[in-house]
Amino acid sequence: MIKKIPKGKVATYGQIAALAGSPRAARMVTRVLNTAWQKENLPWHRVVNSKGGISLKPGHGYELQKKLLKKEGITFKEDDCIDLSRFLWVSAESPN
Asked: Which of 64, 73, 66, 77 is nearest to 8 (CA)?
């Protein structure tokens, strides 16, 4: 599911978990990204928390993720979060 997130859009950890069939497994999505993003060529930077924020800490990937998202045209609000009403990816496979 992570590979399907298009450029210029983001998905939340919980959204990916739900699409994978485990709506309560958002932390598992984090583990998958930590262990397999490079091997599987996953667009890890397009996955954010439920508030549209970057979960990585400054100095530990935060700056890189923000830079990659901005490069795709994603903007941040004053609270440093992404406007999910504008940038959230809506998959055809999303549960309603």
From this structure: 73
**Under 8 Å between Cβ of 49 and 41:** no
Cα dihedral sign for 66, 69, 75, 79? Answer: negative
In tens digits, the chain (96 residues) has pLDDT values of 999 999 999 999 999 999 999 988 999 999 999 898 888 999 999 999 999 999 999 999 999 999 999 999 999 999 999 999 999 999 877 654
61-94 as b/e: b if 16+ CB within 10 A:
eeeebbeebeeeebebeeeeebebeebbbebeee
Q: Is the dihedral of CA 82, 9, 75, 53 positive or negative?
A: positive
Q: Which domains does the chain have, with CATH numbers?
A: 2-87 (1.10.10.10)
